[in-house]
Structure prediction request, 471 residues.
Amino acid sequence: MPDLDAMTIVIMVTLVVVAALLVWMSLTMASVEGAVSRVTRASLNNLILEVQTDADTSHFVRMKKISRIHSVQKLIANRYATIGACTFFRIACNVLDGVLVASFIALWGLPLWMQLVAGMVFALAIAIVSVLLRPRSAGALKPVDVMLRYSGVITWAVVLTPFAHIGSEQSAIKRSKDSNLSDDEALEKIQIEQGKATIDRLVEANDFDPEVSEMLRNVLMLSDTLTREIMVPRTDMVCIEGTESLEDLLKLCSRSGFSRIPAIGDSVDDMLGIAYLKDAVRATAFNPAAAERDVVSIVRNPMLVPESKPVDDLFHEMQRTRQHVAVVVDEYGGIAGLVTIEDAIEQIVGELADEHDRTQHSEPEQIGEHTWKMPARTSIADLEEIFEVDIDEDDVDTVFGLLTKLLGRMPIVGASAVTRGLRLTAVDSAGRRKKVSTIVVEPAHVDADGETELTTDERTGQDHTQTHEEE
Prediction:
């Protein structure tokens, strides 16, 4: 082994220091790679507001923090170029570490094969350290803190790698062709997908109950679900005219099972407000004469929401305003439907049912000599086969659809209509939305000769329909 002079020792010490700095740079760039993809512009804007309103810090400290946040905002503006620069420096640092160690061994006069082995062993050691420390995971846990701490280093890395912008521009062009999402929206989508993957891994590892995992997936999907997807469409809304009496409102609430009913004027688009059952009961309980008052006298102003509103935002707004029902409007200002806070909850926990819901028969059931009780989804073909009639309705497929068409509105319990000599009567409802679930079908009134009464139009072969609602 050769004698080492002072200059050689200085070079060796310098190589050791530079190699240590390169190791630190490599780990830092790895943590930044994990942080860049998780920082949004919104989080940085909120942080600026927090710093500006912090009365416990001096003006100099606030300006320094804000300046650093602005630096991070510039880096996030082209996050793919920033990631490319960090990746380049991480790889370059690992390569240079091996070269420096090989040079360090060469100064001792050792053979070439030992220099190569030393460089490879050191590179493997750095890889093992990276696996144990998991710098990317650390950056993902506190992305904003990591970006603020190393903003100066990252800025220099981006400046020294102008070629990273070329790849980022090509990636941006490709993303714009494949998706219309903004940068932050695309990032949020990626994070949601990562959350779903994490939940799937926990389920596979038996760390979570499957039902709990399904609820977590549903929570992640709330931001992707729009109000129009969970609302009750306007055709299925049970409404009452504002000129009806409170007594009529009480009867309608009793028959429909709803405690909040929209009050309308000339049409559904003429929304007067929401009539609450408890308000009607409060008005009439100790003053029977108030039962003759108009419904419009007790209506409350409705909460209006656009049909494009994400369900998570809808849920939080209804929580904040303490509203359980909202009217959904379309882009033209018309009434699109109705949504309740239970509709949003069902997106997380699944369908809700109460103690009044009964198990429904899945097949038609004969309850009299010529009377059948049919599930609402019974097909028209089954109805025709049982009663040996020709309904001839091409635009509806089920008994429920037929009754809805005959009434011209959403049927409720007690609603009845006659067509082709058959009377259809809604007799039961199920589910939280109280939708008609069972319909009784029987021949219409019979005359003295024992034949079914038909209208004049029916005798001539025309489809004349009579409708009736039992009080």
User: Anything to note?
Assistant: The CA atoms of residues 45 and 69 lie 9 Å apart. Residues 6-171 form one domain. Residues 6-36 form the longest helix (31 residues). Residues 175-181, 446-471 have pLDDT under 50 and may be disordered.
